[in-house]
Amino acid sequence: MLALARRPALTLVALLLPAVLFVGPAGADVPEPAFCAERVALDYGKAFEQMPPQHPPPHGELPFGPRNLAIYRIELGGEAVLPKNRLGYLFAAKDEGRRSLRLDWAIASVLWRVGRDGHKLRRLEVVHRRIGKTKDLDELKLVFPPRDPGFYRIETRFRTLSGRRLGAYSEYVRVVRPKLRTTLVAGPEVVVPGGTAFAQVRNAGTLGAIVPFRVPVERWTGSEWVEVEPAGVPDITEQDSWWVGLGEAAPCSRFQLAPDAPPGRYRFAATGLVEVTREKFPLRASFTVSGAPLPAP
After folding, report:
1. What is the extent of the structural domain holding 29?
2. Which of 29, 47, 99, 263 could disulfide-link 95, Cβ–Cβ 3.0 to 4.6 Å?
3. Number of structural domains, the chain?
4. Quick one: 40 and 139 in the same domain?
């Protein structure tokens, strides 16, 4: 995690943060364009809809397990992960390491290679766990080594040590090649002086990226691009950033133009950072300023 980066899961934190990024006399109550409501740039899990149904374990407590013992996916990329990532599940618990858990569990987790239709091609590996009582959650790890790009299915069954069935789960995972496809979208195409322009970062690639939360705007003077000051007062700095995972779309950044903004070509312009390689890449999206300025409030 970068020191300057706010790295929330967008689906959780976007609901907690206000949509208004600038405080000013006008523009704060301007409704966002429809594209700002989108939180998915590319659905990497859509292929699973053509496969046999899956039944993933809950991201949290198991219905047959003790309180405050949670299961979660080891790879946090959602439906798709990179070849370097391990696959499977880890456990977390309140007072981990100090609390003794009486489980009486026999677990079998199987990793399958499947085709694009979900048909099982071959069984790759099985992880067995037999746990009576433990404080060490590493004994519960259900983890498989990194795999080549393709489609996989994890099937996990829980029983008591005496053989009574507790629960069964299945989940698809797609391993994808590293690919940078992070872009910036702006709207509306034409903004009047004093109006508000919006920009959204979309990550249709497979590499997580650090991107600015507030995207600056530049104006073309005829010979060069110069940065434009917003009419409103930013409530965050340009150093505040999102972490945008594969297939995600970030909340929109808004920019209120001054009432006397000259007509012409404008653009949102920023720099993103690929998390794993530290490679920088440009983010650009253009719009035009034209027409009569908004009336004074």
Report:
1. 10-44+179-289
2. 99
3. 2
4. no
